[in-house]
Structure formats: C-alpha cells, structure tokens
Amino acid sequence: TEALPAVSENMAKPVQVPVAAPIATGTKPDDSVNLIHKAVDALLSAKSAGEKHDLFQQLIKSGQLDAAMAELKQRAADNPNNAQLPTTLGEAQLNKLRAIKEAGGGPNDMGILAMQADQNFTEALKIDPSNWEAQFVRASALSGWPVELNKGPEVIQQLSSLIDQQETMTPQPQFAQTYVLLGDQYQKAGQLDYAQATWQLGLTKFPSDSTLQKRISTPSGQ
C-alpha cells in the first residue's frame, strides 16, 4: 500500500510575497537559472510557514516547482551539513504531492513523493536532531498516512518529544500547532481525555491561538 501523507492544514494563512515570475518564452538560459536561484533563496529565507507556503504555491502556478526542487537537491549535495536544505526539499515534495492529488493524479506518484519527503526530513534530522521545522512537518505528514500503516503511535511520540523540546526554547506562535496536531492524533486514536488535556495545555501557553480555542470550544474538538 502506498503511503499518502497530507500536507498540513495548520500552516499560517499565506501572505503575498514577491517571487520569481513565470519563465517567459524566449528567456535566456542564464536568466532562467537566476530566476530559480532567487526563488529558492526566497524559500530558504522565508520568515514563516505561511510565507513559505505562499512561495510554493506561486512556484506551482508558474510551473517552476520541479526546477526549484532540482536546485534544492543540488544545494543539499553541495552543503551536506545544512539541515534547512533537505527540510525545504521535503516540503517542496509534499506541495507537489498535494498538487498532483488535487489534479486527480495516480497514487503511485504520490506514494513515491511521500516517501522521498520523509527521507529528506529524516536526513535533515540526522544533521540537526533539534530542527523544529523538520520535526513538525514530518510528523504532520506522517499523520496523514493510511491508517493501516499504523503511524499514529510514532506521530504521537514525535510530537510529544517536540513539545518537550519547545519547553527549552523561546516560545514562538507556531509552537501552538504542535499541541493542535498532538491533540488531533489522540482524538483519532480514541483517547479523547488526552486530546482535550493536550489542547487545554496548549491554550494555557498560547491563549490567543484560534485553532486551539476552536478545539476546546466543541465536545469533539473539531
């Protein structure tokens, strides 16, 4: 059975960020390369998940995502100690997976992309085991794999460890999403008390987070 991860819906609302325009017919090869370089630079310097998501969507619409992925692969090969490169490559693969799914593509292509993305997140965590982005996006992706693959316990363990790590870090707004996703996993496993306790703990730490407020305000958490 092919594993099909779900791209996280917990990302912040995308913001409009300048990105390379679609490559026009007749564009010189060097110009095309420069545009991709700039697009990848923008991805790597994005300040938030929402900004990065918006950049990926623009790359998809302009037909440049594959070229950006090739550039990320090359940079990762040239800079094997930079965890951000395989992390961003994995995110690019998840965005391509979602685009294929929305277009009605076949499960084989999506399964391959899912496994490639997971491998890239794993590689990033070999380089930097404490990389928050790689840990969260990997867990988020695994949470969408088919139920029969039984990834739920692994996702719960990863998110629990990530929450422990967050306690040692300067609080960031995106940390609230770890509590959202962990609670969702407990709910999916039928552990409703744990789900509510997790969301409540998250809301205590991030009282203005609207997603956690919604989880707490309804009996089902949804």
Report the structural category: mainly alpha
The overall pLDDT, averaged over residues, is: 86
The portion of residues forming beta strands comes to under 5%
Radius of gyration: 18 Å
Number of strands: 0
The quaternary structure here is single chain
**Global shape:** globular
Unreliable residue stretches: 1-26
Q: Topology of this structure?
A:
Elements (H helix, E strand, L loop, with lengths): L28 H16 L4 H13 L3 H14 L5 H19 L4 H21 L4 H11 L9 H15 L9 H13 L3 H14 L4 H8 L5
Helix pairs in contact: 1-2, 1-3, 2-4, 3-4, 4-5, 4-6, 5-6, 6-7, 7-8, 8-9, 9-10
Characterize the structure shown.
The chain has 222 residues and is mainly α. The chain has ten helices and no strands. The model is unreliable at 1-26 (pLDDT under 50).
Annotation keywords:
globular; mainly alpha; 10 helices; 65% helix; disordered N terminus; 222 residues
Task: Write a brief structural summary.
Helix content is 65%, strand content 0%. The protein is an all-alpha fold and 222 residues long.
